């Protein structure tokens, strides 16, 4: 071996700015995603199964009183499926962070002259891209196979998708914070599932709130998901839009809170 | 001009009631290797974590490459390389992409990063596996990639935390050669190890840690002189002659310890070899082998650790 490992004449690289760090790290996450696309495929299987089952099982709900008149159940259901998929994806962001920590490459990042926050932002950005890909795939399935054709048309669908993406992104920061503190993927999956499963059902996602038992109505009315789903639905169905601003502001607030705790948790030694 | 690349004085770190480091001080001059010797839980990794800015110390100060590890962590990180006990590589990325990633984060342009990555893969004999995901690498390859990753930025100081744990003998030897080359090039190395032969071979000076404290420091020869004794080992052709030989040596004033077909006795100097030969000759015995043994670092470590406990 020639002895040119370290002392070869060289100029020392003097570090990079935050934006470059985020860019490089985001590319890295996306590259692992592309090299192993099973993650995307499997992550849309569950919402796809839900879409299939619910659109068949609950189709008769469209005939019940309280259901918006003249709306097909698939058109009612799909915006909720989009929000649900985005939420599952948010949980995956946290799981991804834990995997990174276990991977060992994070130990390397910690010894480099970079800002650790860039690792989190990169994780969040790459998950945003992944979620967008998932949602677009879901939307295509819904349109082609299940006849999703809401009154809002392509614009409405796109707006609903964008809203779901924003909600998932904000919630993703909460899960990044949880991941940075818990540092345990199995625990995260369990806690996340336990939290999200009832939240989805005790909301306006699958049936109108008016159709729920009284006590569940009370829960649904304070469930932030109800508002997120209602807003996405209003966009898709071209109903008078209320709550979109609220949903966006809530998502942004979640992101800020998540960011603060994620950075603090992430700085703790491995 | 201060040419100490690592200086730590009175460094303390506790995890709850457990004192991981208790008043540790080390000094490593530029271009030398310090071997940090100790068993599991002695505080080796904690000290490495403090020196590499991963863990703030509770007490004391530490400077690496002239910068304070707490107040100037960023400057320290720009000048060090770290290879921990577990390969810190991205298993989803290829070997080349791993190195390019590190170079880019250090501020290299895409072109420079590629050039540096290719160069290092070649030096570490990984060129053939450059494009393969690193999760398909063997343990030895992964360790080499990890070491390559810690060298991307031409660090002035390298920390190797038990770099050969779990490696096969050939990979271990290869890694030793790499470390020796780095030192020839002027890099300063701090190496933690449980393997005494590793410290003996690579380190210019050795610090022994036990229960978070420095229990001994010096060159390998100094440590051996401190606790160890030379000994002579006599191998006899016929094992049944061992008692007879033992008697003869005892008459000559030695304290031989018998084994299967050998006798081992502590000696003060190599001159006593003649005493052994004469004593055996008097009873009509001949040694098939006569060996003068230096004390090993095992002796050093066992003695010191026993004192500390």
UniProtKB/TrEMBL annotation, chain A:
GO cellular component, one term: ATP-binding cassette (ABC) transporter complex
One Gene Ontology biological process: response to antibiotic
One Pfam family it belongs to: ABC2_membrane
Topology in the lipid bilayer: Multi-pass membrane protein
InterPro entries, per database record: ABC2_TM, ABC2_TM_bact-type, ABC_2_transport, Nod_factor_ABC_transporter
One of the record's GO molecular function terms: ABC-type transporter activity
Spans traversing the lipid bilayer: 39-59, 132-153, 159-182, 194-216, 236-262
Keywords in alphabetical order: Antibiotic resistance, Cell membrane, Membrane, Transmembrane, Transmembrane helix, Transport
UniProt domain ABC transmembrane type-2: residue ranges: 38-269
Subcellular location: Cell membrane; Membrane
Residue ranges that the Swiss-Prot or TrEMBL entry lists as coiled coil: none
Record-stated family: Belongs to the ABC-2 integral membrane protein family.
This protein's name: Transport permease protein
From TrEMBL, chain B:
GO CC annotations on file: plasma membrane
Keyword tRNA processing found: no
Annotated ranges, domain ABC transporter: 6-236
Compartments reported by the entry: Cell membrane
Keyword Cytoplasm: no
Keywords recorded for this protein, A-Z: Antibiotic resistance, ATP-binding, Cell membrane, Membrane, Nucleotide-binding, Translocase, Transport
GO biological-process terms attached to the record: daunorubicin transport; doxorubicin transport; response to antibiotic
Gene Ontology molecular functions: ATP binding; ATP hydrolysis activity
Signal peptide: none
Membrane-topology annotation of the record: Peripheral membrane protein
PANTHER family named among the record's database cross-references: ABC TRANSPORTER ATP-BINDING PROTEIN (PTHR42711), DOXORUBICIN RESISTANCE ATP-BINDING PROTEIN DRRA (PTHR42711:SF19)
Family: Belongs to the ABC transporter superfamily. Drug exporter-1 (DrugE1) (TC 3.A.1.105) family.
NCBIfam families referenced in this protein's UniProt entry, alphabetically: drrA
Name of the protein in its database record: ABC-2 type transport system ATP-binding protein
Organism: Saccharothrix tamanrassetensis
